[in-house]
Amino acid sequence: MKRNPFVSLAAAAAFLLLPVAVKADPFTFTLNNPNQTASPGQTLSFFGTLSNGGPPIIYLNGTSFSVPSGTSVDDSPFFSNAPGSLNPGQSTDSILLFNVTIDPSFTGNLITGTFSIVGGPNQESQNILGTQDYRIIVQQQEPIPEPATMLLLGTGLAGVAIARRKRRARR
Question: How many angstroms separate the CA atoms of 160 and 129, rounded?
Answer without folding.
Answer: 69
